[in-house]
Amino acid sequence: MGSKVRLIIHFIRRVRNRLSSYYNLFRLNIYRVEYGKHCVVHGKLYINLFPTAKLRIGDNLYFSSGWGINALCANRKGMIYATDNAIINIGNNVGMSSTVLWAHKSITIGNHVKIGGNCVVIDTDSHNKDYMIRRGQYTDWGVAEPIVIEDDVFIGMNCIILKGVTIGARSIIAAGSVVTKSIPADCIAGGNPAKVIKSLKS
Question: Which of 79, 155, 179, 201 has the fewest CB neighbours in a 10 Å radius?
Fold first, then answer.
């Protein structure tokens, strides 16, 4: 009896995920997002693209967002947020779970990239360093610098990737890291701030 109930629950969740993917594609179309084949977004993804922002997605994206789809993320939802004239480019065969992509200038994600649960990729300080500017009633965007995540990078869960960072191809970022400076290709990096721990070239 118990196994039958679990099978029914599993089936219902699969149907729910499939329906949510159709709904998310509909929302991407509303925002005139360019996306390739097999773009799958399960769960409820928050999307906020300013009128002049651009989001391009390659083939075979998988993005899970909330609903307990990824056990590491529980019910946390992901978000794609891009302000005026910002550009987010996501390559082919990319997977991520409950990720926040916040672009004020540009975020580029290469091919075959895996981003672990609950990561934040943000290319701006969000607020100005000058306290007098922060006192203003309007949004006080801080400095923005492009982020580039090259091909075959693996980013562990709960990482924060900050402005101006390039993560070199095939590198691995350890879980819980805060990446404040660029990381070279073919290495393992981790910590706060993240530093190179080991080379993968050997």
Answer: 201
Q: Is residue 77 left, alpha or beta, with left meaning phi > 0 and alpha meaning psi from -120 to 50?
A: beta
Cα–Cα distances in Å, from 113 out to 93, 95, 110?
Answer: 7, 7, 6
Rg, Å, the chain Cα set: 18
CA dist 136 and 74 (Å) reads: 37
d(CA 149, CA 123): 12
Q: What distance in Å separates the CA atoms of residue 124 and residue 106, rounded to the nearest whole number? A: 10
AA letter at 197: I
Q: How confident is the model at residue 71 (pLDDT cuts 50, 70, 90)?
A: low
- Banded model confidence at residue 140, pLDDT cuts 50, 70, 90: low
The residue type found at 14 is: R
Structure tokens at 181: 């400076």
Q: Are 188 and 172 in contact (CB under 8 A)?
A: yes
Confidence of residue 68 (pLDDT cuts 50, 70, 90): low
Nearest Cα neighbor of 53 from 85, 101, 89 is 85
